[in-house]
Structures
1.
Amino acid sequence: MPHPHLPVSREGVIATVTFNRPEVRNAFNRAMWEGLAETMAALSAEDSLRTVVLRGTGGSFSAGADIGAFAAERGTRALEDRYADSVHHGMQSVRLCRHPVVALIEGACIGGGAGIATMCDFRVGGEGIRFGITARNLGIWYSYAEIDPILSLVGSGVTAELLIEGRIFNGREAYEKGLLSRVVPDGEVEAAAFALAERIAEGSPLSARFHKQAIRRLRGPLPLSEAEQAEANGFAETEDFQNAFRAFLAKEKPRFTGR
């Protein structure tokens, strides 16, 4: 069944998945992460497709995680383990899709939204976008499997700017850093992204699928134990995360103590 916040449309051999929660700038709750995994897996299985485009409604790509849903979905280690599993499968479904995936980025591309974009094979953004990962503002630890594609794209220096400094880049800066494949005026993003999707679709689908797989496999698997991967969810047990979460809901600035 199609997810209500993730409608899929098709134009010939190109499928478009739209993040459709404009009232929260297309922020993702756990159900949407799970819906993304199911949607991308279904599209990946369609031999007739050649390209998938991801985009948002209301002038934003995605503002990332829905902080308003944290009270019900996150906040304890048990809840965080479940939530992180949903995020992981949602993110990786984009990376593992057989078909090339194009991110059509307008407006906010923040947190998990930026994470989704870095899982795509191509990213087309407007000059006025806001691209960044704000995990540090809530005391959240980004997981290894989600850091890996960023590191592969831009190296350790820019990854540190995103995750440790918390930089928010505009479109031109994101392009210069290597986070975008194309940067165009804000009013031309849709046309540029679909022109790219059409160029991809004109080529051999078997060639595109092989090369996508080859690029990923040459990177190799992450040399991490299960315990190391689970360590990334440990922030849920820290005072910093709990205090930052409460401060966010109260619209106050968090104070971090390192505990």
2.
Amino acid sequence: MPLADAGALWPAVSAAGRLADRALWGAGASVTLGELVRGSSLGGRLEELRGRSVLIATSDQLTAALALIELDGVVRRLVLGPPDLPSEHLSHIVTTAAVDALVSDGAVPPTSAPGVGVVVPCRPRLAPTDAERRGGHQTEWILLTSGTTGPPKLVVHTLASLAGAIREGHTLAGSAVWSTFYDIRRYGGLQIFLRALLSGGSLVLSSAGEALGDFLGRAGAHGVTHISGTPSHWRRALMSPAAHRIAPRYVRLSGEIADQAILDHLRACYPAARIAHAFASTEAGVAFDVDDGLAGFPASLLERPAGGVDLKVEAGSLRIRSARTATRYLESPGPPLVGRDGFVDTGDMVERRGDRLYFVGRRGGIINVGGLKVHPEEVEAVINGHPHVRMSLVRTRKNALTGALVVADVVLKAAADPANGRGAELEGEILRLCRDRLPRHKVPVAIHFVPALPVAPTGKLVRPDA
């Protein structure tokens, strides 16, 4: 069935439900797709939501997943509220998206969403139902942007644009077990959720309150074959002995720059897996993925578009045009999502070196050192290449002469604990590596060894304001 048809998600789930081993596994409960075909997570109240604008506001990923499956094609609009959504932004979202119904497992009390007249509980314990899951609606999927200091922008997608990068021709004969460190209410996690369901596979869902080792242990116990996360997710995973509890066939990175060091570390840990890094954004959709084991992407992608995706670089920024792009921002009047030529300006800066382009950082994250620009991610890529470094965060320090200087917080691998007296030696090695590969103004003036770096709920490093 074409993905443009209303409610295309439900037929895929119904077909997979005929296979007894297809399931959604959460941290505290699980549901087979066959059980979902026969029962409902909404307690027989599906008809109350038909045609409405519905905010999915659950603490648990499993209940969110069940609601998304049941409501696509039935409701007019699905608003995906991540569990870390600040309460002060809720009123803005309700008003902007004209939310008139709430699906919740108790995480968001009705009093927090004034004006919402219908509140329907969602539970992983299914109730028998004979309700019609299909409907005539081309449901709008509303995703929230992240990384902004003010209220998030609301980005409008359809199931067709969200699933545009998922290859057609999947069959139910596949036995893929997918998983992701992401939350499925954000773009990166939603991609994995849809890939699992539309390909007839199963999905192991993570939980915000779950220890990393427990999650990897569950994923391994369910035989995960395909798993994704940000480079920061993967760096933290590789620091844990639990990294060896999984033996995936496919490892995917997205959301941050995948430098050569993390690609090499993953190849060493999972030698039998295909390692791929993808570029995508909530607004532009999935642009491409690369699985040749190298950082960056081939310049040929600019010259020979693949999969209906046009790429170009303008003023150093990668721009994307495709049918996978979101329809618009929901705010009205709001900022234009695409330019006059139909391209989305991602704000991700790239640099061409020979026949390859490399991501160097975000346009808004530049450190200004005496009028010279420094992308923190470019420096981190060099530092992370040191054999004893697990991950790093480059930030600014104010300076009266140059305005700013570059400093780096570095997490070492366990075997290189600076407490053993090698701290000064390791600092010297890292600084020499930076001097060999970077212009003088990009070399950190100081290296600070830290036990860990903060990672946001999005899976990305928390970067202080420059």
